[in-house]
Amino acid sequence: MWDKKSFVGEFSGTFILTLFGCASVACAILFGEYVSIFQIGLVWGLGVTLAIYLTRHLSCAHLNPAVSVAMVVAGRMNAKKLPVYLTAQCLGAFLAGWMLYLLFAPSIAGYEAAHDIVRGTAASVDTARMFGEFYPNPGDAGAVVSLPLAMFAEAFGTFLLAFFVFCLTEGCNVGRPSEPLQPLFIGLTVSSIIFFVAPLTQAGLNPARDAGPRLVAYLAGWHSSALPDAVGGWCWVYILSPIVGGTIAALLFRHVIEPMMVSKKDDNKKCCCNTNK
After folding, report:
1. Would the CA dihedral through 51, 57, 58, 63 be positive or negative?
2. pLDDT truncated to tens, each residue of the chain (277 aa)?
3. How far is CA 138 from CA 7, 53, 201, 273, in A?
4. pTM for the complete prediction?
5. If DSSP codes are grouped into helix, strand and coil, which group holds residue 170?
6. What is the phi/psi pair of residue 185, to 5°?
7. Which of 97, 135, 150, 268 yields a CA-CA distance of 20 to 30 A from 222?
């Protein structure tokens, strides 16, 4: 089902959040501009907020394959729309990765020369992490993260993100913020999750945001060093796990939380709004 508005919305929104977020990591690595995960997390959250405000009149502003799949599972979106959403999100993130590389390529080369880093070697993970995520987070030397733990961290983080998206936008939830403020609260949710997941896995939470820039790094000379390990862990951790986490959140919300919201008051039945089908 081709939908031009949805494609443009998801493409441009995912481009914006990926560009802003990855640029914050690049500035932290190359220039030391951000000295804590708190600052980087806030920039990511701000990027998500701005991307939603920019595009929600065009699409449902999912901007994340895991969220789109969760919306289908929860019955909020027709599955026929999924290919358009996923394609737009992946292309938007891929273009953002190339834009990041074009902007910072000279600075990356200068950083590599100053630190005796040969691109494509194991040491070049230090610069590759501004594109795709790695576990353990190369910026936290004390982190001890196995493949199963990394998968759990990404799945749990995305579970929280999708669950908050459902709760913050559900018409039956009388405690939800007003519609103009919903993007801000979703952005703050992203920031909050990054604060405790990023020290472990850099907090991908979004398969498109990871796969697009990671592919750019692979093509731009990092090659196999753009991949976290030799057993396909990047796919399990940053592609599959977020989708699993989002799906679990959708099932929990649809079959447990939403029915309780509806049954609390008869009037609540009138305010449920699954308008994205």
Report:
1. positive
2. 678 999 999 999 999 999 999 999 999 999 999 878 999 999 999 999 999 999 999 999 999 999 999 999 999 999 999 999 999 999 999 999 999 999 999 999 999 999 999 999 999 999 999 999 999 999 888 889 999 999 999 999 999 999 999 999 998 888 899 999 999 999 999 999 999 999 999 999 999 999 999 999 999 999 999 988 877 789 999 999 999 999 999 999 999 999 988 876 555 444 444 444 3
3. 34, 32, 9, 43
4. 0.93
5. coil
6. -70, -35
7. 150
Alpha-carbon torsion 66, 70, 73, 77, what sign?
negative
Sign of the C-alpha dihedral, residues 88, 91, 97, 99?
negative
Q: For residues 29-62, b (16+ Cβ closer than 10 Å) or e, as one string?
A: beeeebeebeebbbbbbbbbbbbbbbbbebbbbb
Q: What's the Rg (C-alpha) of the chain? A: 19
- Pair of tokens at residue 193: 């999750």
Do residues 127 and 112 lie in contact, with contact meaning Cβ atoms separated by under 8 Å? yes
What does the alpha-carbon distance between residue 186 and residue 175 come to, in Å, rounded to a whole number?
14
Neighbours of 111 (CB within 10 A): 17
Token code pair at residue 64: 């994340």
Six token digits for residue 67: 């969220």
Q: Give residues with Cβ within 8 angstroms of 14, minimum separation 6.
A: 51, 63, 64, 88, 89, 90, 92, 93, 96, 208, 209
Taking every pair of Cα atoms in the chain, the longest distance, rounded to a whole number of angstroms, is: 67
